[in-house]
Write a structure and sequence with these properties.
By secondary structure, the chain is of the alpha+beta class. Helix content is 45%, strand content 21%. The chain has seven helices and eight strands, in the order E-E-H-H-H-E-E-E-H-E-H-E-E-H-H. The termini are far apart.
Length: 143
């Protein structure tokens, strides 16, 4: 055997020579054993799809890390209960934080998604609250 030894999930896959051969001959099955790398855009889509209402914010409800995030939680909870929407703390994962800016083409947080569609940031959400649109899309989403 050659070094370095390559292990995945505790299983010995081989030395460097075996690894190189397996990469050249994909029929060996080595590639199937390796984890699939998900891109940040795929992760963003997955996070958006976890709940019908999702807020990407700084902090969590009750532990907001900025005033804008605190305000969007207040606005949302005027229509839906905590637990009827999901949140993602973008301060916990910089890759998601940067990825969401590109994904939504919106540079700031918080960001609200309803039914996998980008609604907007706090200013747009407040505007929609004032004209009645927010209640319509949130309550439709909860049902």
């Amino acid at each position: 055997p050659t070094f370095p030894h390559i292990y995945f999930n505790g299983e010995f896959l081989g030395g460097l020579d075996v690894f190189k051969e397996s990469l050249e001959d994909a029929s060996e099955g080595l590639l199937e054993k390796l984890p699939k790398v998900r891109g940040v855009q795929e992760r963003c889509k997955e996070l958006i799809g976890r709940e019908r209402i999702v807020v990407f914010m700084k902090g969590r409800p009750g532990e907001e890390r900025c005033g804008f995030s605190r305000k969007i939680v207040e606005v949302l909870e005027g229509f839906v209960k905590r637990g009827e929407y999901g949140t993602v703390d973008v301060l916990q994962d910089d890759e998601v934080r940067q990825g969401m800016k590109k994904f939504s083409d919106w540079p700031t947080f918080p960001q609200l998604y309803v039914d996998k569609e980008f609604v907007g940031g706090l200013d747009i959400v407040k505007e929609m609250q004032e004209n009645g649109e927010l209640e319509t899309i949130l309550l439709k989403s909860v049902r």
